[in-house]
Amino acid sequence: MDIVLVPGLWLDASSWDLVVPHLTTAGHTPRPLTLPGLESAETDRSDVHVADQVAAVVGAIDESDGQVILVGHSMGCAVAGAALDARVDKVAAVVYVGGWPAEPGMIPAKNFPTDGADLPPVPWEEFDEADVRDLDRATFEALLRPSPATLTTEPFELGDERRYSVPAVFVCPEYRSADLKAWIAEGTESVAAIPKHKDVTYVDLPTGHWPQLSKPAELAAVIAETAVR
């Protein structure tokens, strides 16, 4: 099965390089994406919009002959969720890693500081210790480049509530599934979409916020198991 891999902020397709071989060995066709605006550190991001990133994921889904497994990481979860909304019939299941889909009108990255057309990477020193657990700093920082600043101002537009019927797996890395369930019970706005899903699986994967770098084999196993189901 084709597995479309959507990176989060500041990362391109290469951020999935350690996961791809495991998925290939399991018999799947991984399709890691570089979203618009992430082509290089020097890319002009002044005219890159949320809709452009969503369209890139939709395009990858459309290129597959059959249904796909859709995987998003962090902010890429919101982008993947919007692509799911646009192509509900083409997605067999969606895996949200270290994040969750947005609800209509939400701006998940609204609190990040920007620099002109850029949303610069957060400095290593500003991450919580839990975020960077098991992560090699040099390897991580070598992958980073700015994301489009429009992600901090443009809301996600969604319209097909059938997306709530697609099986969803929530991988919890730097926090536990018990924490996520508590946030849901408290009515935390950012996770408001989760209780609307009809088929939800929670998976604890104890590591930092980037398990595709720190625990790639374990993350690939979760994705492959989702594909089998």
Automatic annotation (TrEMBL):
<dbReference type="GO" id="GO:0003824">
    <property type="term" value="F:catalytic activity"/>
</dbReference>
<protein>
    <recommendedName>
        <fullName>AB hydrolase-1 domain-containing protein</fullName>
    </recommendedName>
</protein>
<dbReference type="Pfam" id="PF12697">
    <property type="entry name" value="Abhydrolase_6"/>
</dbReference>
<feature type="domain" description="AB hydrolase-1">
    <location>
        <begin position="3"/>
        <end position="222"/>
    </location>
</feature>
<dbReference type="InterPro" id="IPR052897">
    <property type="entry name" value="Sec-Metab_Biosynth_Hydrolase"/>
</dbReference>
<dbReference type="InterPro" id="IPR000073">
    <property type="entry name" value="AB_hydrolase_1"/>
</dbReference>
<dbReference type="InterPro" id="IPR029058">
    <property type="entry name" value="AB_hydrolase_fold"/>
</dbReference>
